[in-house]
Hints:
Elements: H1 2-7, H2 17-35, H3 39-65, H4 68-87, H5 91-102, H6 112-121, H7 123-131, H8 135-147, H9 151-174
Helix pairs in contact: 2-3, 3-4, 4-5, 8-9
Amino acid sequence: xxxxxxxxxxxxxxxxxxxxxxxxxxxxxxxxxxxxxxxxxxxxxxxxxxxxxxxxxxxxxxxxxxxxxxxxxxxxxxxxxxxxxxxxxxxxxxxxxxxxxxxxxxxxxxxxxxxxxxxxxxxxxxxxxxxxxxxxxxxxxxxxxxxxxxxxxxxxxxxxxxxxxxxxxxxxxxxxxxxxxxxxx
Length: 185
């Protein structure tokens, strides 16, 4: 919607660098405002505008020269920082959370709540890292090929889906307090 009704009518990317900069800033500021009427959402929009401008003007060649793995790490880091901004209640919280992520002295890297979440959800980052690689697809293809016409394969696949459903449901039940994200709008 923003592309069709804001970005392109402003000229899109077929304009001078300065007008392109204006277009990016306007579109992302409006995108932030669309998510909520709080400063963190607007800053979130400006954050993405800055990232896009920096990538286009300064980081395109250095990022392209990085190995694919480091390009993925960069993308995840940009997304992680955006999540911190998006979910914060105040600018102070953004700063505290970002400092905590890099282990700045003076901020506790351990608390009972953190220990609880680490113990409860330790498997999630492991599954996420493995799931972000082609390994899962490769294993699934090999398993499907090997078990395609065997009776255990016909039973095993639905059983694995059932186990996955139960694990996901258990994690959903454990994290029962989830305030509505857009309530602050």
